[in-house]
Amino acid sequence: MFKRSRLKNFDFILLLTAVLIFSIGLAFLYSATKEHSYSFGGILPHNFLIRQIIWFAIGLFIGLIILMVDYKKWLELAYPLYGVNLLLLVLVLGLGQTKFGAQRWISFGAIGFQPAEFSKLVIIFVLARYLSQKETTGSLSLSWRAGSNGGKVLVSSFLLVMIPFLLIVKQPDLGTALTLIPVLFAVLYIWGAPLRTLVLIFVAGVVSTPLLWQILKSYQKRRILVFLNPNMDPLGAGYTIIQSKIAIGSGKLFGKKFN
Fold first, then answer.
1. What is the 3-class SS of 220-245, one letter each residue?
2. DSSP H or E run through 106
3. C-alpha closest to that of 96 among 173, 151, 156, 155
């Protein structure tokens, strides 16, 4: 049963911000598509608005369900959810649908989802559960100097993230996989990991970039190079970036009027 007391700690400003951003985006979408009569991938322009509203409503409903459950219950389910997520990431490699050269989607009838997106939330849960079970003295930096098992905790935390990270890279979906890294660093920092240690690990990752470059697929290398220089492929991978610059240059600071 929903407890009204939980509303006292509910972040209404965050909710209103999300609704405002959604409303602005919906207005932009309407302005950009209302004069077009042709379809986009078989979807008529006005249906874009309906689809966005439906998905936003579904998101709010799911958010309400999550709010009804005590967050401690979610932490208790962290390890089972982590296991289910790994299973889905393995299944998608064999049974998933391939779109745009990547095998990322699992479909149940008309409903499809990406297990990699599910990983972002699960990683937060499992790290919070794992780290909450490890005792620290004030912060990890203090217990670290005292000869605690801080190093083992860091290694274990990285392993928890690296397993889904590698499975997502295998799809391949490097962009989504990379989003797990800042999540890991943020949770470790909040828990009490020494900032100096995290910075050293980050620097080590940057230094190893040439090695990582060699194992990237050709399309991934091209995507990075085009991001740095869109004019390398103005009609292909760089088209969106170039058009974005043109739009910003055309609209300037305040943009063009709402159509």
1. HHHHHHHHHCHHHCCCCCCHHHHHHH
2. strand 102-108
3. 173
pLDDT, tens only, 28-68: 877 777 665 555 555 555 677 888 888 888 888 888 887 77
Alpha-helix runs per DSSP H in the chain: 12-33, 45-68, 71-76, 78-95, 115-132, 140-145, 150-169, 174-178, 180-191, 195-207, 209-215, 218-228, 239-251
Strand order in the sheet with 102-108: 97-99, 102-108, 111-113
* 34's tokens: 């209302």
Chain CA centroid to CA 127, Å: 16
State which amino acid sits at residue 40: F
Radius of gyration of the chain (CA): 22
Q: Are 115 and 138 in contact (CB under 8 A)?
A: no
